[in-house]
Amino acid sequence: MFENLSERLERSFKILRGEGKITEVNIAETLKEVRRALLDADVSYKVAKDFCDSVKEKAMGANVLTAVKPQQMMVKIVHDELAAFMGSAASDINVKGNPAIVMAAGLNGSGKTTFCAKLALHLKNKKGMKVMLAACDTFRPAAIEQLKTLGGQVGVPVFSLEGEADPVKVSLAALAAAKSEGYSVLIVDTAGRLTVDEELMDEIRRMHAALNPTETLFVVDAMTGQDAVLSAKAFNEAIDYDGVVLTKMDGDTRGGAALSVKAVAGKPIKFVGTGEKLEALDVFHPERVADRILGMGDVVSLVEKAQEQFDEKQARELHKKIAHNQFTLADFYDQIQQVKKMGNLKDLAGMLPGMDKAMKNVDIPDDAFKSTEAIILSMTPWEKSHPEGINGSRRRRIAEGSGTSLADVNKLLKQFEGTRRMMKSAMDGSLAARLRGRR
């Protein structure tokens, strides 16, 4: 995400390197490059101009401390302005009601149906809510079946009315069913429509008026850039929605939609889709996104993702195993599964400060652990617990069973033993430090 913008902004800040203070001349030159970077990122000219004017006003009025270099001050000001333009703080979804009604609207092909399933999983797993999905896209023939398939994958029921073409009637019937069956949230999937199609826009207005949803979200493909921003503005004029969802953010190297939509449509970005997996939905945090754009990483989100996958009891048990040198290949396999649930490996690495740039030309496939998993799964329970006892014949059998080479098996066992020693050493060092502190 934001790969091109990050590089351009980094180059623009270099203009201030070696300067003793911020002046009209060097700030003008720097902001000219910043404006070009924003325009190349598909940010509208007006938004880019307003952004640079705001940065200049703050930079020229800043009380620059002697300990802070002009380049560092400019990075700080641009960071704060980026966050402010994207909404400053995360905006929570309103799911209060009996049931709460969340309505998803947007253009054709924006990913609404998939988003509805992702949101259902998010509310179910992270907020512990009882969710029902409503298939109200009666315009696209495969939409109902698609939602039912996705609903099955996330373990959420899908309401539909066979043979009913009026989405307003379907949505009201779904609401009645959700109320009678005690669901806390009803997520309504609607048909994709173009702003130029007045008949379909009128239909979404009628649905909105009939349901009176507690939360209306406009779902749009981030990769369409300024088109996404313009359609967000048009839809807001039609149904006055509560927030924006940007899908396919993982494929958007420019970031124009994320940077412009709040300024143009006046509505916050609430969620971003960051991958094809149904777990790949993140709450939008403007400050954290500003951190990533400026190469500062996003350690907070990385820690949150880890906390979601690793429970406290498992962590304590793992800690004890490492301390007693009982960490096994079975434990190693379990840790791989937890890491995979956290998301795309390259994206996770990019959350570490400075790693976005380092990972630019590095390809980490989603199946990076495939051969390691195959080797471990080809072992017997005894072999997983006693890797030091895996002799030559066992290694050959494991290689054949996993479809890998003997060299691959030898490499894994060597790496695992080194990892186990390192973990034990780190644990012993931590314990020794704590004991010294008690004296």
Structure overview:
With 439 residues, the protein is α/β, with parallel strands linked by helices. It is built from 20 helices and eight strands. The protein has three domains: 83 residues, SRP54, nucleotide-binding domain (Four Helix Bundle (Hemerythrin (Met), subunit A), Up-down Bundle); 197 residues, 3-Layer(aba) Sandwich (Rossmann fold); 136 residues, 434 Repressor (Amino-terminal Domain) (Orthogonal Bundle), CATH 1.10.260. An eight-stranded mixed beta sheet has the order 3-2-4-1-5-6-7-8, sandwiched between helices. A hairpin with a 7-residue loop joins strand 7 and strand 8. Helix 5 packs parallel to helix 6 and helix 19 crosses helix 20. It is flat. About 2% of the residues have low confidence.
Short descriptors:
439 residues; alpha/beta; Four Helix Bundle (Hemerythrin (Met), subunit A); Rossmann fold; 434 Repressor (Amino-terminal Domain); 3 domains; 8 strands; 9% strand
Record the SSE blueprint.
Layout: H1 3-13, H2 24-40, H3 45-61, H4 70-85, E1 100-106, H5 112-126, E2 131-135, H6 143-154, E3 158-159, H7 167-180, E4 185-189, H8 198-211, E5 215-221, H9 226-239, E6 243-247, H10 256-265, E7 269-273, E8 281-283, H11 286-293, H12 299-309, H13 312-323, H14 329-341, H15 345-349, H16 355-358, H17 370-377, H18 381-385, H19 392-402, H20 406-438
Parallel strand pairs: 1-4, 1-5, 2-3, 2-4, 5-6, 6-7
Antiparallel strand pairs: 7-8
Helix pairs in contact: 1-2, 2-3, 3-4, 4-11, 5-6, 7-8, 9-10, 17-19, 19-20
